[in-house]
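thought: user wants a sequence for this fold. calling inverse folding tool.
action: design(structure=
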C-alpha cells in the first residue's frame, strides 16, 4: 500500500440504531494496523455526544471527524471525493448514502438489514452479516482493510457505477 490516505464517508441521523458506534470501534482496530485512513461522519442527532466520547476514549480525534449537518451540495461534494462509503445502519432506514454510493461509483460497506441491502452484493459492496456485536465490528474492520487496496476499490467502484444504471426510481 502507498502512503495515500484513504477516506471513508458515512452519513445520516446520529441515532443509536444507526451503528456509527460499531463503525468507530472497527476504525479503532484498523488504526492499530494503519494510520493512512480517515472517516468522516456527516449528520446530527441525539447520539452525537456518545459518539464523540467514543472517538476521544479511543484516541481517534485525528482519524474520525463528526462533521454535523451539511448542505446537499456539500454532501454530494464529499461523496464525490471519498474513496469508500459506509452505511453501518442496523435496521432499514434512510439509505440514501447507500444508493448514492452506486451513482458516484464508490464501493459500499453495509450491514445486511434484509431490506435495501439485497440490492447490494459483493461484486461492488461488502455486505456484513448481522450477528453478534463483536462479529459485526470484526467484519467491518476486515471490510475497511480490504477496501484500502486501490485495485479492490477501483474494481468495486466500477461495478457499483455499472449496477447503478440498472436502477430507476
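)
observation: tool returned 169 residues.
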Amino acid at each position: 500500500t502507498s502512503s495515500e490516505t484513504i477516506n471513508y464517508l458515512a452519513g445520516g441521523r446520529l441515532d443509536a440504531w444507526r451503528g456509527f458506534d460499531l463503525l468507530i470501534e472497527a476504525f479503532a482496530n484498523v488504526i492499530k494496523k494503519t494510520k493512512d485512513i480517515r472517516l468522516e461522519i456527516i449528520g446530527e442527532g441525539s447520539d452525537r455526544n456518545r459518539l464523540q466520547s467514543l472517538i476521544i476514549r479511543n484516541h481517534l480525534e485525528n482519524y474520525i471527524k463528526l462533521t454535523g449537518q451539511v448542505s446537499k451540495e456539500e454532501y454530494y461534494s464529499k461523496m464525490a471525493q471519498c474513496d469508500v462509503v459506509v452505511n453501518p445502519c442496523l435496521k432499514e432506514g434512510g439509505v440514501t448514502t447507500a444508493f448514492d454510493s452506486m451513482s458516484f461509483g464508490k464501493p459500499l460497506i453495509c450491514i445486511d438489514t434484509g431490506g435495501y441491502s439485497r440490492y447490494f452484493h459483493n461484486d461492488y459492496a461488502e455486505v456484513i452479516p448481522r450477528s453478534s456485536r463483536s462479529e459485526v465490528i470484526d467484519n467491518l474492520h476486515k471490510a475497511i482493510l480490504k477496501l484500502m487496496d486501490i485495485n479492490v476499490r477501483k474494481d468495486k467502484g466500477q461495478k457499483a457505477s455499472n449496477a447503478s444504471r440498472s436502477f430507476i426510481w
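thought: summarizing for user.
answer: Here is the designed sequence. The chain is about 40% helix and 15% strand.
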